[in-house]
Every structure is written in structure tokens, then in C-alpha cells.
């Protein structure tokens, strides 16, 4: 059992799911986000409001931690300046503070959008080259390369989890391949925490879907074994899905709607529109 | 649900298995073959006799179709002239008519014999180079390359299913690795039809056999998940199997007896002889 | 020195270049084409008019030959029926007659258009998958697979030379990468003839151009070492070249204009138009 | 059913586990080891004491055998001279006697230590280059290359099983990935015996562990399907595991403690010390 | 001939070398840097002082340009904040302004330090994964991924030149492999400008050194053919070189001294110290 | 300049060629072999008779050496017992003595016969798997794996030079691809000595032949650039060469006659017979 884990982005959708599972893996869980406070703190949980783009604030949060689970960033496409501060500078401060405070490992919420322009008919493994689809995806590429640097030069371990579509349920045809269920997210983060050594690693954050378009074999040693399968939702989802167009990057690329969304503008609206198109 | 699917080779052994499952996936199923008629038509099924080597006949059948499932061809080694007409010219007419009629996708019964000369100790994936074992296999190579051409130049999608040993049961040692059960054939064709976008794809048509010698990972996005396993037949089959010879291509190559059958002559007799050799 | 070599397509542009060099490699050179006769026969050259789509005619020509150099086919995109007879049936008859007459090796004029839809920013080697750009290219794919079959099943060797732009000089920007000079063509065919064993081999037919976009390393044992370089023509050619469009397959794919020419229609006119576009 | 199988190393820990399963696969099982005798012989089992470094002794044991299962060797790091006699000369005599006596196949207990210096964050398949971690591992590399030679030159088949941590239970964190259960060992040897043709093959000897760090896909045709999973022991084992150090080859390499043990000295003591370190 | 080229970093060491060659490739050369002015302007050269981290300033410079040659950035390891502003924000503004102003291509001074932590005994090609050795190298990774994004989403071409050791002469043993002569730099930039289509490309900026440790084959279509060879300096350089240590990343990694320099501190002093160590 | 180099096999054909070049690279050259003495010692050369299978004798020779150039072994196929003592035990003693005496690097005469069973139509690089053709080749595999072990565990560098056909001239058709001229041998050994760091490296020992069937790119950093080309001998050699048979391993495999010579018997006689077969 670890002494202390830090969770960034604890007030976010995914971060919120991780508080209890992480609290069970350590003596002290420190959660942090921009919000002033967090409801329903767990017995061994402490919340500290912090701006991740400010190194001094992050330094304070990290003190004495064994590992940091870094989910604190903008989670959708956004204007460049916002991505720069939140996701690029924010990544730097997290790894730098981790180094200065002797934190051993960063478990990082990377994203499929780091490689979203690859066609989904190309079954890719974790060595596929960076091919971002948005500023958001570009910031994930940056953080992965930063993680590589801190491992090679400073011995800080990182597990970069390229999370696909982490939703409560499956709501569009693309998600039949890309869904990451909430329980599988928890399994993934748990594996990333408990694996004895990880070095610099990349792993796809995706459930055991029949239509999964990526290969997690190279991360096998992490022991992440998803148990949910989007296919149980296939009849409902396909019945209402719009026809797809193989010439359209939205329908052909791993990044889905992010592959066509204009840079700097949100892909969320497009995803929503898409789901009800039929 | 699709409006119209065309099934060629509907009077054949495998084609016959597909009539009911395909009828369930569309409003109108048009079946075709050389035979004058077909017994036991399904409520939404229409049968049209046609010679696939005649473009005008194929044009008529394809009108208004969304997809065509192309099983109409000689299914064994045969003299060159027969293969040329039936399998090479026949493939051209199917893809060309599909293009002219606005058909979106061809689901094609390709074959392991397109790559049958690879040794089975070489675990091959769907990118292994063409290495046909017969004129029959050569015609499958041709059709796959044709499919690639129609996708790159004209945007017609294709799923080339390299079917192995599709039999009701497992009758020889080779089939412990190569068996495709009838239910798994139906699963495969269903996946090839229902996957939203496929581009030009190749997938192995083989069940979930313990001894499967090919890698289907690159076709993962199609969601084909076989459920049968030839291994349940292993005790019976191995008890009566002849000793094998690792220096004999029949016993060492993916193509099995096709790897040694003289070009232009039937491999079927050899397969049958083999099964009872012990 | 070989006893007898057969050259098909001897009346064609490239075939004509090969008569003298081949005559120097054997005691008897038999040249053949559709034309009734050939002017200026060399001392050890015999000409026989023959239709390569007729097996019996080809059988006569091949009798007693050691090797056949097969250049007799349509050399541009053409309607399907023409390609079928000339390039597909014609390839079958050549390899089949070679087998029946005990010919040891087929040296074959394949083409870059067998793989013309690959982007030229992808440096490809001789194992790149077939990706034809035209019916013409498709027929080259067919013949290569046929050559593989005759090697694996019958021990006939083949050298498939994927000839690029074999012209007297360099006349457009694409050719700065793709040019095969006439002297280098002769070097290539000579290497394919004189190499002691070749099995089934593929080699790019391209000069030592600075901008060569393909990798011939896997054919290194053939000893083909081109000596010409299109770059000496770069100043002239680039000065008059039209601006290119990276989104246009014509400008981005290995196949050049063949990557955009409509199937069944000649690409030659387009190439000519292109050269003077500026 | 085979006529005769020979099992070397029958008095050893793993060899002992194989006597009954092998006896069920043949009419006559001949077991051999250095010990003068073996207790509890099975009805169709004959024991012959033999020194595997003496060719004449091995020749006698092999007479009339169909296959030999070769487990007779030092199973831990040892001084060079001991490894040389037992594992290198011993391998030569086994393959040479197999050849002289017409034995068809050698099923060989190779080891993960043939490739133990690869980092375990590198998911390796059976084509990973030799990278031994000890003299012991070096002797396994030697025997694998010897097996390749006897297949290529003399047609003797071999299945080189790279056994990981074959123990009754899971006793340290490394074994969560590397465990080979006793029942899975028996499944593996049975597959290696009963597969009709194997040529020269390599297969990982590891259970179906969640954290398995190697890829057995290329040996798929052998039909080895492990059924045990070390993960059921994870809570107990991780609770008492020492913290690991990603900079330490012991914790980072496939070979585990063998990756740091001094050459020529036993790694067993280090493994034991490690297990109780927490 | 292009209408207008923009050169950033024109007051720098390498930028200065490029002014005349670029001026010869276009009607109008606009040079820019932080300095207030530039001496010895060429007849068709205009200098505009600009801060590349300010989008509006860059927008003005880019107006009407066909291509931009981007050398304007910190060229050594530096503190994070400096790298962030100059190399990361500066890259964003250059590509964004290029997009907004309709510039077709960015020719970018990337660096070997984007992959500097690979061992030099690993011969790497342009697909080797990012493995930066410094914040400087990390910023080059960022810009390459940005270039990939602008190509995939917006059709802006980029040639990322991973420049090695661009010096007037060869002054240390490492440079025997890594030297890029000044004339070869000019050849490289000229090729990157004049190649008709480039898409998103990566090319090593290194001379034709005997000891070159990287593979430029995949960039072959660019036609960059270096003509200088550091080996002529080998006798002098090796005579005064310090002994190297294969366990030291400085001596074993592509990045050389950057592989050991502390993050954020200059590697230049270390390189100089190294050169005279013997 | 190195202080002391040891050369084993100094009385052999190749060893003799290396005495003068090595003497020029160090202050003291110690040569050794089984012979009692060596004629014409160079000024800085000392000869010590030693049996390489005796560790104590090797220890004496190695004292104080910086590097050892290890050519002392049987250089042809021979009976197993002879290969075992001379080439396997002899390799162990050389690396072990090197370790104990603080020698930094072993430059080793490995051989193409470590991979001789690969077909020569497969262009192989230095990562091709071991595929020995003889006991001789097997001993080279062993020494390479030993070299890998001593590098990974003990930091001893090795350059394994896989020497092809090192002869004064080119005497048979195979050698057109495989020749290593004497001057190129010296260039190769010099590069292996003078490269600052090598780790564990493999390099093909072959001249710059037009028909070279192996890829030395991965050893590029060593700076070995051969200057001779067997092709100048092609007219003479091919004129007298026997016809080759592509089904014969002797004519189709990298190992040439070693690919067919019976194990344990000399391949030299076969090579000689072959050269005059025509």
C-alpha cells in the first residue's frame, strides 16, 4: 500500500470516479482541482484547490507523494491559449513538481486524440506515431514526450493511458469500438498504480469491445484486463445510427468527430449532433 | 437496416447458408446463381438466374442494391479456362456492375488459397504477401487486388473474407486449425455487412480454434468474434489421422492439399483421400 | 552463355531496345510480336509473329528456350477487355508455355502501376502490398502472383521488373524520381538474365535518381546497379513544371497520372498534357 | 499414438511431473536421468540411467524412439564447466543421437533466460533476438541454434519451449507475469508432442496470466492454450512484495534475478531472498 | 521560382547562411529576427524585426508568402520558460500565421535532439519514436507534431529537418557521425523548398559521413544528396579525442552531451569542454 | 592510440594479414597462436604461443591489453569435438580472460555461416535470426550470444564481424556477392578498433560488391566503408561457372556449399570442386 497518492482533476467527471478507488490504494489521498472545495470527502482524503499551471501550487500538493494520477486538464478541443495554459504548461508543472518532490510515478490521462488521424481500418498498437487531430490531441502528444524525457533523464516513471470514449454508456456507433466503461477505467488506473515497475509506458484506455481497433499487447505486463464489452449495446445503437461515409474522416479515423472539428473549437457539440443524426 | 442486398452463388453450399441471415439484414434480398430457380424462397427474397461473366446480366441484378455478397464462383481448383471465366471475369463484372449501379460495398468470399504456399509454422496476418497455391487461389488474389483498385479509385468498399475450411464438422487434422463453422461464417458475413465503414479490408474466415495459424487482429474493428472451436473434435480426428511429413507442403503449408495438387486439377479428391488415409 | 532466349514484344518501344543486348547473351535469340515481320534482324536473331493470347502459338516460340524476356503486352491503361486478353491471358500463356517447354526463367516487364496508389512520400520496398492504379496495373499484379505460383508449385524462376518511366529523356517533374534510362533498362534486363539463381524476385526498374522514391535493397543480390541520374535534367524540367497539389493523387502517388486517370482510359494523353501544363 | 517417447531429466522436478502424461501418449515411455533408479514406475515406463554427455549412452536410450522430451540439464545458473558439460555437450548428444536413431522430434526445455536481458516493458515475441542473462541462458541459446541446424540440415523437428517460472504456486511479484503452472506445463508438452508438424518452433512456456509479458501468437498453430492465471494470487503476493526499482535489471528485465546474478553463481538463493524481502 | 519566401531566425548562425541561397529561389525574400536590423541586405531581401511569439507580428511578415523557412528559435538547451515562449509558442504562431496567410509549406529546423536518447548503436530511421533529451528537444517534438496536425487537418505541408551538428568543421569524435556541413545544409534546405510535393515529411540533416548513424531512405523522394564527409577530419579529431565510455549516455546516445546535460541548463559548455578533454 | 592489442590466430591466413595494420594502431601488439613461433616479427610485436582452450594461457596473453582481435579458431567445418574445443571453449576463454584482465573490447571473426541457411534471395540485415549451416556456423552463433552476455552483464564491448568469403581474388560465382577483399578486411578491423564506442555490435564482413546480399546499414555508425567490388571479376568468373540450380541450397542459400556439406565434414573440398565444375 502506498503512503500518498495525488489526484488532479478531482472535480471532473472522470476524476470524480477515481476518488474512492484511489483512496483504497493508499494511506492518504490528496485530491486537487480548481474548484474551492469538494463534497463528500472520503475519510483518508484531503482536498486542496490548486491551479496546475502554477508550479508553486503544484509543489505544495505533491509533497511526500508516491504517485500522482493526473487528470486535471481541459478534456475537449479548445482555443490554443486555453490548451497551452491548462494542458501544456499544466503538464510541465506536474512532472516538474513530481521530480522535485521525489514522486515516483505519474499516471496520466492521455487520449486517443494524440493519434486520432490514423484511419481506424489501420489497427494500431502503442508504437503508432503521434498523429494528433486537435490542439487537445497535440497537448497529449506533448505530455507523452515530456513523460519520455523525465523517464530517460530523471527516472520518473509514467503510464500514459490513451483514453478513448469514457462514458457511462454507449451512445453512438463509433463507441462500439472505442468505449471505455467506468469500471474498466478504474481497472486501468488501478493496474497503472499497482504494477511494480512501469518505466515509460503507453496503454490504450478501452474496454474489451468486440470492435476494438487498437492493440494493447505491448502493455500486457501492466495486467490491465478490461471486462466490459460495448457490443451488448450494438442492436440499440446501430438501429438509430446514421449511415456512415468512408470518405469522411469523422467516420474513418480513430479520432472520430475530432478528426473533422475545426481546430480550437469544441468537438462535444459535434458528437452530440452526430448521436442523434439518424 | 439496408434496403437491398444481392447474394451471388446462392445455390452453392455456402451461399445457401447465407440466405436466411442476409434476408434478416435488409428489406429485399436478391439471390442469384446459374441455376434456373431456387427452392424455398424467403418472404423478402427474389431469385434471378444470371451468369456472372456477363456484365449486362449482373447489371440487372445489382440495380438499387446497397451491398453485394459475392460467393458465386468455382470453389475448388479447376482448369485455367474455367477459373478465368468464372472467377476472374466474374469478379470484374461484379465490381464493375457494383460501381455502375452505385452499390456501396462488396462482401467477398476470398480464400486462404490466396496465400496457401506460406508455411503454417509462419503465423501470418492479413498483410502477408499473396502466395497462391492454385489457379483458384490466383483468382482470389486477382479479386482482392481488383477490390483494392475499386476502393482507391472509385470509393467502393470491400471486405475480402479469406475463408479457410468451411465445413459442417471437422474431418481431418489440418481442419483443427483451419475450420470455419457454419455459424461463424454467418457471424463473419454479418459483421462485414453491419460494420459502418470498412474501406478495403481483409479478414480471415476461421473459427476460434485453439490451433488457428493466422492473426485476425488487423481486422479487429470489424467486430468479427468467432465462437466455435475445432478443438472439441481433436480426440476423434487425431485418433484417425495419418502421420504427417514436415517436408511435405501438403502437411506444412497453409494451403494444405492445394499446396501439392497439380495446377488445374481438383484438390477435392485429394482432401477426401487424405481424410481417410489412416 | 545461354543457348536460346525468347523476347516477346520485340516490335515495341522497349522491346526494340533489348534485341541487340539480348542477342549478345545467347546463341539464338527468337523475337516475337504481333507484327508480321521485323526489320534489321541481327545475325543470331529469328523473328516469329505470334499472338500471345494463343497458347499454341506461344508454345512454338518457346521450344528449347532457356529464358523468356516478356515485354509483349499493352503498355498503357486500356479498356478491360483489351487488358484481359493481352495482359492477363497473355501472361498465363507465357508462363504455361514456359513450363511445358522447360524454360527456366521468365524476365517480366511488370510496372510501378502494380503499386501506384501508394503515396510517394511513403518510401516503399519490393514487399509493399499490391495497390494497382488502373486495369493495366491490376494486370501486372496478376502476372506477379502468377509468377509466384509457378515458382512455388513448378520451380520456374521469375524476375518481375517494376519498370517506372522508361523514356529517352526526362520530361516532367515526376520523372526526376521515376526515370529509367534506356541504358539502365538494358543493365537491368542483363542482370535479370545473368544472375545465377533468382527464384521469384521483384526489382524496381528505376535509374540512380537523386529523388528515387523506392528501395531496391531486397533485390541487391541481382547486382543491378543503375548509372544514370535524372537530376541532371532537374533545372530544365523544374523551370517549366506546373505547380503541384499535394492533395491531388496525380502529384502525390507513385502512379502519377495513372492514379487519377479514369479506369479503362489511356493515361498517355494525360501525361503529355501534364508535361506542357506550365 | 506414438510407439516410444524418451524423457530425459526424469528424476528432476519438472521431469517428474511429465512421466504420467507422457506415458499416456505412447506405447512405451523410456525415462532416463543420472540417478540409478526411479520409484513408482508406470506400467509402460522403463527407466535407464544415463549420462547425457556420453553419446554412446544416449544412443542406447533413443533406439526406436519417435520423439524425445529433453529436460535433462542443469536448471539454474552454475559454473561454466558444469554448464558446458551438462547443457551444451548434453544438448549435442541428444540431437545427434536423435538423428542417428531416426527420432523425429525433440521437445526441448529451453528457458526465458535465453532472452532474459530484454526489458519486460518490451513485449517480446518468439522472434526476439537471443539476449542471455547467464551461462545457463547461454546454453539454452546454443541448444536452440543447434535445433535450428538439425532442422535445416537434417529434418529433425524441434519445439523449444522457453519455460518461465514453473512452480507449484506464485510466490513473488515477478511470477504474476511469468508463472507457468504445472497443469499448463503438461498442456504445453502435450501440444508439442501431438501437433502433427512443427518444424523448428519456439514457444513461450507461460500460463494465461493477466500480466504476461510475452507474445505467443507465432506459436499459435501448436494449439497450446494455457488455462491458469497467476492473478488469483496477486492480492497475497503484492501485499508482501518489496518495493521495486525500475533502474534495477532484476526488477526490469525478463530474466528477473538472473539479470543481476553474477555469472557462474546460482540465482536460486537470490530468488529466495527476494521473495521474503518484504 | 517562388514569389516570396520568409526566413525566420535570419540573424542567427544558420539563418545567416541561408539568406543568399534562399534569395536565389524566389522573387522576394523576407528575413526576420528579433534584431532591429540586418547588415548587407541582398537586392531582393527585406528585413522585418518581429517577435515570433506574437501572432500579429508574424502575420504581417507572412503575408503573401509561398513558403516559410523557420529557423527562429533558441538553438540550445535553456530554461523551460524560455523554451516555452520561444520554441513552443513560437512554433504555434508560425504555423498558425502560415495557415491564415495561405502559406503552402513550412521548412522547419527540427533537431536530432527530438530523438536524442536513442542509443547510437541503434541505426534509426525517420520513424523512430520521439525520445527527446532536453527541453530543447521536447520543443522540437512539439513542433513536429504540430506540423503533422496542420498537414492532416489543414493541408499545410512541412519538411522537418532534424539537424545534427551543423558546424563549419568537425571538432570532436561524435561529429564524425553527426556533422552537417554548411554546403550540405544549403543543399538540404534547397531540396525542401524545391521538391514539388512533400506532405508532412521528416529528414535527417546530416552530411554523407562514413559514420552516419541514421537512415534517410524514407526521405529519398526529397532528393537531398549530401556531398561532404566528416571522415576527412578523422585522423586529426581521433588523435585528440578523449577515451569514451560505452556506459555513458553522452558517448552512447544520439544526443551526445545533450543526453547528460541537466534539464534547463546549457549543453554548449559541455560540448566545448568535451572537445578539448584529451 | 591504444596501448596494447592482442591478436589471436596470428599464424592463420587472415590473422597474418592483420599483424601489420594492428601494429600501427597500438604501442604493443601481442600475437598468439598454437605455432611455436612466428617469422618476421614487427618492431612492436611480441609473439606468445598459447592454446586458446586453456584459460590460464589466455590470461597471460591478455594482461594489460585494451582490446583483443580474436581470429584464433578452426575456420572451416570440422568434427564436433574439434569445434567444441577450439571454437566454443576457445571463445569462452577469450571473453572470460578479457573480463578478468580488464580488456575493453573483443573484435571477433564471426562468420556468415552463423546465418547461412537463409536464402540469398532474402536480403538480410544484422538482426536476421541465427540460422547456422554447420557446426562451424553454430560455434559462431554461440560466440555472438556469449558476446551479448558479456556486454549486458559485464560491459565488455564486442564487434562481431560476420566475414563472408575473404580471399585474395574472386574464384566462383557465389563470391561475386560474398567476396571480402583483403584490403577491405583490414578496413573492417580498423573500424572495429577505432570506433569510440561499439557496445555489442554485429557487422557484415563483405566488400562493396554489386551483388552483395546483406544489409550493413545497422552497423553504419562503425564507419566501415568497403572499397573493393567483386564485379570486376564477373566476366571471367561467370564464363567458367557451372549452371546453378535454384532448388539446391548450395546455390540458393547465403551459406553456399556449407548449406549442403554434411555436418562435421569440411566444406573446403566442396568449394574447390565447385569452382572448377564448369
Automatic annotation (TrEMBL), chains A, B, C, D, E, F:
* UniProt domain NAD-dependent epimerase/dehydratase: residue ranges: 5-164
Q: Does the keyword ATP-binding apply?
A: no
The answer on whether this UniProt entry bears the keyword Plastid reads no
* Single Gene Ontology MF annotation: oxidoreductase activity
The UniProt keywords, alphabetically, are:
NAD, Oxidoreductase
Q: Which family does it belong to?
A: Belongs to the NAD(P)-dependent epimerase/dehydratase family.
UniProt cross-references to PANTHER family, sorted A to Z:
4-EPIMERASE, PUTATIVE (AFU_ORTHOLOGUE AFUA_7G00360)-RELATED, NUCLEOSIDE-DIPHOSPHATE-SUGAR EPIMERASE
Q: What is this protein called?
A: Uronate dehydrogenase
| Organism name | Loktanella fryxellensis
Amino acid at each position: 500500500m502506498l503512503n500518498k497518492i495525488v489526484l488532479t482533476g478531482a472535480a471532473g467527471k472522470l476524476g470524480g470516479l477515481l476518488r474512492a478507488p484511489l483512496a483504497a490504494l493508499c494511506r492518504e489521498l490528496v485530491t486537487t482541482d480548481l474548484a474551492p472545495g469538494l463534497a463528500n470527502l472520503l475519510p483518508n482524503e484531503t482536498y486542496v484547490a490548486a491551479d496546475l499551471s502554477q508550479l508553486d501550487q503544484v509543489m505544495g500538493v505533491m509533497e511526500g507523494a508516491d504517485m500522482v494520477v493526473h487528470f486535471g486538464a481541459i478534456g475537449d478541443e479548445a482555443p490554443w491559449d486555453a490548451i497551452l495554459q491548462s494542458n501544456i504548461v499544466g503538464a510541465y508543472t506536474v512532472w516538474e513538481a513530481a521530480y522535485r518532490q521525489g514522486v515516483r510515478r505519474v499516471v496520466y490521462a492521455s487520449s486517443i486524440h494524440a493519434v486520432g488521424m490514423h484511419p481506424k481500418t489501420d489497427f494500431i498498437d502503442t508504437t503508432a506515431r503521434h498523429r494528433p487531430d486537435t490542439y487537445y490531441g497535440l497537448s497529449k502528444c506533448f505530455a507523452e514526450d515530456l513523460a519520455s524525457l523525465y523517464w530517460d533523464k530523471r527516472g520518473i516513471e509514467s503510464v500514459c493511458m490513451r483514453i478513448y470514449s469514457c462514458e457511462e454508456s454507449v451512445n453512438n456507433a463509433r463507441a462500439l469500438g472505442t468505449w471505455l466503461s467506468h469500471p474498466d477505467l478504474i481497472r486501468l488506473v488501478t493496474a497503472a498504480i499497482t504494477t511494480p515497475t512501469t518505466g515509460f509506458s503507453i496503454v490504450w484506455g478501452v474496454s474489451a469491445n468486440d470492435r476494438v481497433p487498437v492493440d494493447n499487447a505491448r502493455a500486457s505486463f501492466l495486467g490491465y484486463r478490461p471486462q466490459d464489452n460495448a457490443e451488448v449495446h450494438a442492436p440499440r445503437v446501430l438501429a438509430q445510427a446514421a449511415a456512415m461515409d468512408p470518405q469522411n474522416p469523422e467516420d474513418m479515423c480513430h479520432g472520430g468527430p475530432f478528426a473533422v472539428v475545426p481546430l480550437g473549437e469544441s468537438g462535444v457539440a459535434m458528437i452530440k449532433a452526430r448521436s442523434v443524426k439518424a
